[in-house]
Amino acid sequence: MKPCAFEFLAPKTLAEALSVLWQLVEEEGLAVKLLAGGQSLMPVLNMRLSTPDVLLDLNGLQGELGDIVINRQQVHIGALARHYQLETHPLIRRHVPVMAEAERWVGHVAIRSRGTIGGSLVHADPAAELPLVATLLDGSMILQSKNGCRTVPAAEFFLTYLMTTVEPAEILTEIIFPAMPARSGQSIEEFALRHGDFALAVAAAQITLDESGRIRHSRLALGAMGPTPLDMSDKVAQLEGTRPEAAEIAELMADICRTIEPDGDIHADGPYRQDLAAVLSARALTAALQRAQGWTEMA
């Protein structure tokens, strides 16, 4: 399988990329695809599920879009940050540990060495780990075009299978996550048929305790359940103000997951995914709670 013929352009700066993209899309009416890591894009091109007129290579912008910094309790991640950087970076492991943990589930080493956070989010596979983490933590996506930039929260970013709010002349340049609060824990649990496969179900959780050790705030998101990651935080809000045992969490999640209707496919039907969601979400919440209970200032 080979891609269709296309023109290849490789801008050297973000300003150049935005200008060229605007000209190609808005003035010439051409179909343009952006190349970052290419781990999702190249199979799509090879199967001719996408037939762009122009491929715009963003890898020359690594210096502008590859940084990871923390500013005012927010972690700013350039869209070209690679998976392996997110897995190993000390700022990510300290302030967004669920992302570092999630990265271990992403494909294989070769994929993590090239794939980018921006590419994963824009590809918007609802079974992928990084869209789930963005939903869990309510990350903010910074989208830029020649005419300016806008900020889109994760709840509005993912539209359906493989579709986002990114406009044809826009580039996702940065993702902002809140740093994990004090007395908090995060966790992710996933089940796949083989390591590196897409998840049949995946759950991510964050628990924050008050000074008395009761749950002050709880968040939960589920992946591989439908066209977008599911934010279940309103469902688990009933844990707030309590000190639940693992069995209580498992019972609650069994009840909550009966209310969702996962999509089925050749790998797993809806009821099986529903059962997986209950088990994995209970495990993720319990692990997050235990980590919050063991939280220290220097953790």
Structural notes for this entry:
- This protein is an alpha+beta fold.
- It is about 35% helix and about 25% strand.
- It contains twelve helices and 14 strands.
- The chain has helices at about 15-25, 40-45, 60-65, 85-90, 90-95, 95-105, 110-115, 115-125, 130-135, 155, 245-255, 270-295, and strands at about 5-10, 30-35, 55, 70, 75-80, 140-145, 150-155, 160, 165, 170-180, 185-190, 200-210, 215-225, 230.
- The strands form four sheets. It has a five-stranded antiparallel sheet with strand order 4-5-10-6-7. The protein has a four-stranded antiparallel sheet with strand order 11-12-13-14, sandwiched between helices. A three-stranded parallel sheet has the order 1-3-2, with helices on one face.
- Helix 11 (about 245-255) packs antiparallel against helix 12.
- The radius of gyration is 20 Å and the shape is globular.
- The chain starts with 6 loop residues before the first strand and ends in a 6-residue tail after the last helix.
- The model has no long low-confidence stretch (mean pLDDT about 95).
Give the SSE layout.
Layout: E1 7-9, H1 14-27, E2 32-35, H2 41-46, E3 54-57, H3 62-65, E4 68-71, E5 74-78, H4 83-88, H5 90-95, H6 97-103, H7 109-114, H8 117-123, H9 129-137, E6 140-145, E7 148-153, H10 154-157, E8 158-160, E9 163-164, E10 171-178, E11 184-191, E12 201-209, E13 215-223, E14 230-231, H11 246-257, H12 270-293
Parallel strand pairs: 1-3, 2-3
Antiparallel strand pairs: 4-5, 5-10, 6-7, 6-10, 8-9, 11-12, 12-13, 13-14
Helix pairs in contact: 11-12
